[in-house]
């Protein structure tokens, strides 16, 4: 059974940091891109960041470049999203998603694997 278990969300003040974790199981980690999309209240899903385990490529949305860093621990089947300099507009439910490539993972999350979300709230 495929599972993507996200954790690490919470309430933080603007300018603060959080680290999200995604524990992946039930599929071959090395053949997938794993990343994060987010959904703010009343808005569509937004691609945030992704890492490809087949070639090491990464993707960052323009809105998070320079503030967020994605990384993975292949031995533990874990993917992390370090979020620094958080802004109120980063408030959303963050979902861990996976598919065979970065494009599919980020821009068609409904066609891949998606875990339950973790809520990030950034207060001003």
How would you describe the overall organization of this protein?
With 124 residues, the chain is mainly beta. 5% of the residues lie in helices and 53% in strands. The protein contains 1 helix and 10 strands; from the N terminus they run E-E-E-E-E-E-E-E-E-H-E. The protein has one helix spanning 102-107; strands at 3-7, 10-13, 18-25, 33-39, 45-52, 58-60, 68-73, 78-83, 92-99, 113-123. The protein has a 6-stranded mixed sheet. A hairpin with a 4-residue loop joins strand 7 (68-73) and strand 8. The radius of gyration is 13 Å and the shape is globular.
Strand proportion: over 45%
Q: Taking all residues together, what is the mean pLDDT?
A: 95
Write out the strand line-up for the largest beta sheet, numbering strands in chain order.
2-10-9-4-5-6
Order of helices and strands: EEEEEEEEEHE
**How does the overall form come out from the CA principal axes?**
globular
Number of strands: 10
Any idea what the radius of gyration is?
13 Å
Helix content: under 10%
Structural class: mainly beta
- What is the distance, rounded to the nearest whole angstrom, between the alpha carbons of the first and last residues? 40 Å
Largest β-sheet summary: 6 strands, mixed
Give the low-confidence spans: none
- Helices, by number, come to 1
């Amino acid at each position: 059974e495929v599972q993507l278990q996200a954790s690490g969300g919470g309430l933080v003040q603007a300018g603060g940091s959080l680290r999200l974790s995604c524990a992946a199981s039930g599929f071959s980690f090395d053949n997938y891109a794993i990343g994060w999309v987010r959904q703010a209240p009343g808005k569509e899903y937004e691609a945030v960041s992704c890492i490809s385990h087949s070639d090491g490529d990464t993707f960052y949305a323009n809105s998070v470049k320079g503030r967020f860093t994605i990384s993975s621990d292949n031995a533990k089947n874990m993917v992390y999203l370090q979020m620094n300099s958080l802004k109120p507009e980063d408030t959303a439910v963050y979902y861990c998603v996976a598919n065979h490539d970065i494009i599919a993972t980020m821009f068609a999350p409904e066609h891949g694997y998606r875990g339950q979300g973790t809520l990030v709230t950034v207060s001003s």
